[in-house]
Amino acid sequence: MDRIKNQEKEFDHFARAKRLEEIPLLTKQYEQEKKVARKFFELQEAKKIEQLNRDRQMALASRDRLNRMKTDKDEFLNLFRGQRKEMFEKKLAEFEARVSEERKKRLYERKEKRREDRRQKWIQERAKEE
User: Fold this and answer.
1) Rounded CA gap, 47 and 57, in Å?
2) How far apart are CA 71 and CA 54, in angstroms?
3) DSSP state of 68
4) Residue 14 to residue 16: CA distance in whole angstroms
5) Is the dihedral of CA 96, 98, 100, 102 positive or negative?
6) Segments making up each domain of the chain, as ranges
7) 6-21, pLDDT tens digit by residue?
């Protein structure tokens, strides 16, 4: 039992000594990794900022190009809307003319039907009287 305890003490002593030797190395390694991570972060940030600047320049160029096209777009849309409006008004006039014709036709048919009904009624009354 004593032998096991002695071995345990030796192992514990060795482990602590090892840790005492490792702590400065670990802190040194941590500092180095921290520096590398910092450089990597700064490099990535610089790339990100550079990309954002390029994107902004491209957006400004696109905006300027599109602004030059705006008058042409407006002219085209006005022409297109004018043509569509003319076509709509023409079709509307045709539709209203057909509706008017149909209305007149139906009115005439009802008038003729009422006249025919009155005539038939008059004929029936005459037949009853005789």
Assistant:
1) 15
2) 27
3) H
4) 5
5) negative
6) 1-95
7) 778 777 777 776 777 7
